[in-house]
Amino acid sequence: MTLKEIYPLYLNNEAQQPNTNLAVTDKYTGEVAFRVAQADAATIDAAIAGAVEASEAMAQMPSYQRQKVLDHCVKRFEERFDELAYALCIEAGKPIKDAEGEVSRLIDTFRIAAEESVRMGGEVQALDISPRAKGYQGIWKRVPIGPCSFISPFNFPLNLAAHKVAPAIAVGCPFVMKPASRTPLGAIIMGEVLAETDLPKGAFSILPASRDGADLFTTDDRLKLLSFTGSPDVGWDLKARCGKKKVVLELGGNAAVIIDHDADLDDAVERVIFGAFYQSGQSCIGVQRIIIHADVYDTFKARLVARAGTLIAGDPKDKNTFVGPMIHEKEAIRLDNWIQEAVASGATLLCGGKRDGAMLEATLLENVGRDQKIVTEEAFGPVAVLSKFTDFNAAMAEVNDSKFGLQAGVFTRDLFKMFDCWDQLDVGGIVINDVPSYRVDNMPYGGVKDSGLGREGVKFAMEDMTEIRNLVIRRN
Known about the structure:
- This protein has 476 residues and is α/β, with parallel strands linked by helices.
- The protein has helices spanning 41-60, 63-79, 81-92, 96-116, 159-171, 185-194, 216-219, 232-241, 265-277, 297-308, 329-344, 373-376, 392-400, 415-424, 458-464, and strands at 6-7, 9-11, 14-16, 22-25, 32-36, 122-126, 136-144, 148-151, 175-178, 204-206, 225-229, 246-250, 256-259, 289-293, 348-351, 355-356, 359-360, 363-366, 383-389, 404-405, 407-411, 429-432, 448-449, 452-453, 466-474.
- It folds into 2 domains: 6-251 and 451-472, Aldehyde Dehydrogenase, Chain A, domain 1 (3-Layer(aba) Sandwich); 256-440, Aldehyde Dehydrogenase, Chain A, domain 2 (3-Layer(aba) Sandwich).
- It has a 7-stranded mixed sheet, sandwiched between helices. A 6-stranded mixed sheet has the order 10-9-8-11-12-24, with helices on both faces.
- The mean pLDDT is 97.
């Protein structure tokens, strides 16, 4: 399969090719794979104006018509499955099996949105709670918030964009989207499919843009919501500059998993290998900290290290590849430096630790100081650290000993410990008998602390993209 050499941007529903300024590389070879049009400030301004103009038509669009648009997307994504997976493999360096999994999730996300688009309701509310309210009745419903701004990341260029786009269509919000410059093609193909529908003109714009030239996505007061997925430093800065608009932030993490003494170790090893190393560890809920009960520590460690040594690294287009390249060599260099810093400070390298360009081996460490970057920061690569516990409360405290709080995994058969984790772990989601890297696209997903604000998952994103409008009725 081959990709086209040149791709447009989408301005107010229409493909435009003002330039070919953005060169996108094959992340495995490092060669330019294709070129994409890049938006300037005037183009972004025109897109926002178009979204404002489309707001009324989008809000008045019947739910069955919004569902029809989303159903069309599902059908076309299914028909273009192989193309979408190959595009991910090239632009993100994602192993082809992981790429196929992401396309499946893209389809799921749009299918869920199609279902939810005809379920938006409200509530009849009794107001006569005291004598002064006798004869009063309330009814509320949700209405679209208006033009939305979306900024999506490089690591899931399809599905994390879909978690913004599909709910917006489901509720009737026009939007402007800035995909990550390193991986814009998934969003552009999404634009191709949306352009086949009868959405009102201005309903969507998909605009690759440089970070320096994209301030309007954040600062323009015509936009009523900013939804950003990316790094914490960038996300919190955008929040500080976005003015009065509502903000949803899906940021980073250094997710932990607890392996209790009663865990099925063979199963836990397989899941931790997946959580730590799938798509080269470039996931905000990738397993970074592995906290293991002392009674099973040595056994689990030996099995985990042995299994990590079997992972095939290389060309992501090869079906057998499990670990592909990181998004850029400079990110691999950064993480390699963190590993070397930890080893220099007394950590033990259990496996991996070698780098070749953007390729970094699946790496496991133990005896790592709690002050090391590889523990305190987001690695966002194929590295995890092992530690030991004897007291379960101490293990939970170690999970919470982080500035992040996205998701945590706990392998235990103890029902009471499960509920203790649900009550005490300061994270957005707890996954029992699996890794924190697990997500289903209809569940509420998001974090606390430096991991963000708000929740995604189609139904929950739809709530953020709407406002409650109340109606009070007085009957004499």
